[in-house]
Every structure is written in structure tokens, then in C-alpha cells.
Amino acid sequence: MSTTEGTSANRNSEGASSKLWGGRFSGETDALVDQFNASIDFDRRLYREDIAGSIAHASMLARQRVISEGDRDAIVAGLEQIQREIEAGTFEFRLDREDIHLNIEAVLTERIGDAGRRLHTGRSRNDQVATDTRLFVRAACDETASLLRSLRGALIDLAEREAETVIPGYTHLQRAQPILLAHHLLAYEAMFTRDTERFAQARARANVLPLGAGALAGVTYPIDREFVAQQLGFERISENSLDAVSDRDFVVDYHSAAALTAVHLSRLSEELILWASAEFGFARMDDRYSTGSSIMPQKKNPDVAELARGKSARVIGNLVQALTMLKGQPLAYNKDNQEDKESLFDSVDTILITLRVVTAMMPTMTFDADRGRAAALANFALATDVADYLAKKGVPFREAHEAVGALVARCERDGQTFEDLTLEDFRAAHPAFEADVQAIDVDAALAARDVPGGTAPGRVREAREAARARLERERAG
Ligand code: ARG
Q1: pLDDT tens figures, 110-160
Q2: Mean pLDDT over all residues of the chain?
Q3: Catalytic: which of 255, 293, 294, 347?
Q4: What is the pLDDT of residue 9?
Q5: How much distance in Å is there from the Cα of 259 to the middle of ligand 1?
């Protein structure tokens, strides 16, 4: 499509505007304005939603005897033919026809004449585009939620495969206490479960029919909005016509759920990148999900995880763009709202491909269980357990904390670990220590955290099974 195409071709013999809305205009828009105003390059993606909305609208108009059944049949057949041509790639989109709505209507009218000119009775592009966008967001929410479920399935599978693998848990990125890798993976499963709920909520808010609001104030025909809602699968109809044409909160809801999902994907990716580094060395990435360096022959780079982390920036940016687009708008529809689409499409596309690739990568990750276990023991990761040991013998916890802290300082000074200490060393730190202190090890530390939500192996197994059952319930509908 040429960017300047249309200016002269648009002019009819009287020199009046050739636009579908051109009645009160005596000249053409500037070619640069056509280019600036047009959204067809991106909103053509809404052709299916637009055609479905128009078919529902025309069917309703015929039922209400606003148009004839003959006109309705011509409109429906014409729109179905246009849809086939768009899908075959043979439909000609024209920049001078501005957007998807006018491109379809103009071709329909060229082909079926007055019936095509009657389609827009009792409708405005304002309620039309709001309807199309809601249909799009509703489907996007479903697809995103479905891919989130796949990722959760992959995390649960990995938690099952790595049921025995131990790693250090961190706070402040300092080794803190031993945990099961499965527990760590299931923490991400919990985040993605909340994300799935958010997309279900976003879907419910999008699932409201704006059509019938007209340009802003409602329409003068005896329309049946409930019928149109039912035809398009909307849960209910909008309650205020001004709000219906100007509301893009449902777009923000998608962005907002997507931004948080992107943040979760970014955090997970960051973990994988750290774990795959020589410094951590807990995980290895499969060749299929890594790339090499063009100069350093030894390199294996976690590009997929890095891109998943990096792409969160644009999804967050798109949320901010949508909010900022809305903030200065008086009621009702303003052309600003045309700017809702590119960022929406970008976030949908970005989230979907990121979910797909991260889900595919998860089962290819391998873990070095020996290294994880060694790291889980190192750096006095059992110090809390040693303090808890004293507290369970009746020593006030703060006193126990103090005594074990002093023991850690002593070991650090002497280059020792707890495993190097004799019972006498322990007793010198606090008289309540007895021989069984030397039974505290990584497995004992894990097993001791036997509370709901804790990292004890039995609890993690239960949590994993509960997560799997919840996922299967969701999938069953
Ligand atoms: N392309 C426009 C949009 O995306 C369609 C609605 C235009 N309405 C209007 N009155 N100009 O918002």
C-alpha cells in the first residue's frame, strides 16, 4: 500500500469528498492526514470481530424490521465473502478507507449497493470499534490463560521430576536455608495461578456489549441489544452509552494482567540465568534454548531466558501507554482511542510467544543435584536449625540466636564449618547443646519445616498434587 495513494483517486467528479463520511466535505483530506489518520495497517487484524459484529447487528435490524430480510441476506453473504477473501489474502485494503470498518463497508457497498448502505443504520463506528476490541480482548484472555495453564503444567512436571533436588533458598540473594527445588518451582506456579485468575477477571470485564450505544447517546431505532449480545456471546449489555463508547478499561485490564505475568516470567528467567551461571552452577540449559558467542568459542548464552526477561519491559511500557492515552480524555469517544490497538496487539503477541517458549524450555532444563545440595549446606545455612534446636531445649530464641551467631563468627574466624565442630565446641557456645546437635543436616532441616506451605518433602508433594488437581479442574472447565 503506497502511503500517498488515494488522494486523487478519492476525488469524485464534483470535487466533493469520496469518503464514506464525506457528505459535508467539499474537498479531500490532505494525503499526509490520510496517512496519519489511518489505522488500517494494524486494525485489519480485527476483521473477524468486525464481520461477526456486523452480522449480529444486521440480523438484529432485520428481526426488528428496521431492514428487510433480503437486505440482511445480502449483507451476511457479502460479509462472509469478504471474510473469505481477507483470509485468502486477496482482499484489497486501502489506506484512504481509513480503518477496518470502512474498508469492509465500502467493498460491501460496492458489491451489494443499497443493502450495504443500510448496514450502518443504528450504529456508529464508536460502538462498533468498542465491540470489536472487546471481542478481541475476550479471545486474547482465553488464549493467554490457556498458555499460562500449560506453563503451570510444565512447572508441576519439573517439580515432580526434581522431587528430591535440594538447593539453597535465598533472602537478599544470600544463602539462607535449604529448600527443595520443587518448592521453588511451585512458588512460580503459584504466581502463574494468580495470573490465570487475573485473565479470567479481565475476560469477565471485557465480556459486555457496547453496540447500541451509537455514537455516544444511544440510537433512535427499536433495536434489541440483548439479542446482539447473545449472538456475540456477551454476558450482558453496557449500561451507559457514554461509558460504552469511551471505556477502554478492559484494555488496561489486559495490559495490567499481562504486565504482571511478564514480570513473573522475567523473575523466573532471572533465576534460570543465575542458576545456569558458573557462579551458581545449579542448572544447565539445553543447546536448543541457548546460543553461542561469535567471538568467545566457549560461551553458551541463555538468550531465551534473557529475552523473556527483556520483553517484560515493553509489556510494562504498553500498560503505561494505555493508561496515559486515557487520562486526558473527556467523554465520550475521542480518536485518541485508536491508539489502543498497536500496544494491545504487541502485548498479546509478546505474552503469548514468551509463554510458549518458556513452557517449552522448562522440561529441557537439567539440574546438578550434588552441587545444589552442597550449596544448601554451605555458608552456615543450617544456623537457624541450630538456634531452633536450642530454643526447643527451652533456651529463649533470642539467646539461642545470639549463641549460634557467636559460633558462626568463631567458625568464620577459624575457617571451619559446623560439621568441623566437636560437641565441646558447641557446649562452649551454649551449655544446652547435647550430642544430638550433630544430627542436624540438610535433610533434617528440610523435614523439620513440616508446616502447611513449608518445604518439608511431604508438604511439597502435597502442594504439587494440589496444584495438579487445581490445574486439571480448571482445564475441565
Ligand atoms: N479507527 C477508529 C478507532 O480505532 C474507529 C472509530 C472511529 N470513530 C470515529 N468517530 N472516527 O478508534
Answers
A1: 999 999 999 999 999 999 999 999 999 999 999 999 999 999 999 999 999
A2: 95
A3: 293
A4: 43
A5: 26
Q: What is the pLDDT, as a whole number, of residue 5? A: 42
* Cell, residue 360: 517449552
pLDDT of residue 14: 58
Query: Is residue 255 flagged as an active site residue?
Result: no
Ligand 1 neighbours by CB, cut-off 6 Å: 39, 43, 99, 125-126, 129, 335, 337-338
Contact 261, 253 (CB under 8 A): no
Q: Which atom of ligand 1 is nearest to the CA of 335?
A: 12
Please give the distance, rounded to the nearest whole angstrom, from the Cα atom of residue 100 to the centre of ligand 1: 10
- Cβ proximity of 47 and 79 under 8 Å: no
267-271: long-range contacts, CB 8 A cutoff, minimum separation 24: 267/188, 267/191, 268/188, 268/308, 268/358, 269/305, 269/306, 269/308, 269/309, 269/358, 270/305, 270/309, 271/184
Q: Where are any strands of DSSP class E within 313-378?
A: 366-367
Q: What is the pLDDT of residues 370-414, one digit of tens each?
A: 999 999 999 999 999 999 999 999 999 999 999 999 999 999 999
CATH of the domain at 136: 1.20.200.10
Question: What letter does residue 233 receive in the DSSP assignment?
Answer: T
Domain count, the chain: 3
Q: What is the mean pLDDT of residues 76-90?
A: 98
Give residue for cell 528430591.
Answer: 164
> 267 with 366, same domain?
yes
The answer to whether residue 159 sits within a structural domain is: yes
**Of 340, 373, 406, which residue is a domain's last?**
373
Q: Residue 190 belongs to what domain range?
A: 126-213+239-373
Q: Which of 172, 238, 246, 312 is catalytic?
A: 172
Q: Is residue 186 part of a domain?
A: yes
Asked if 394 and 336 sit in the same domain, the reply is no
Question: Can 183 be counted among the known catalytic residues?
Answer: no
Task: Measure 208 CA to ligand 1 centroid, in angstroms.
Answer: 19
Residues 339-363 pLDDT 10s: 999 999 999 999 999 999 999 999 9
Q: Against a cut of 0.85, is the pTM above it?
A: yes
- Asked, for residue 458, whether it belongs to a domain, the answer is no
Domain end among 59, 87, 121: 121
Nearest to 75 by CA among 61, 89, 64, 90: 61
As a whole number, mean pLDDT of residues 434-463 equals 97
What is the pLDDT, as a whole number, of residue 2?
Answer: 43
Ligand 1 centre to CA of 119 (Å) is 17
Nearest CA to ligand 1 atom 4: 338
Query: What would the mean pLDDT of 442-465 be, rounded to a whole number?
Result: 98
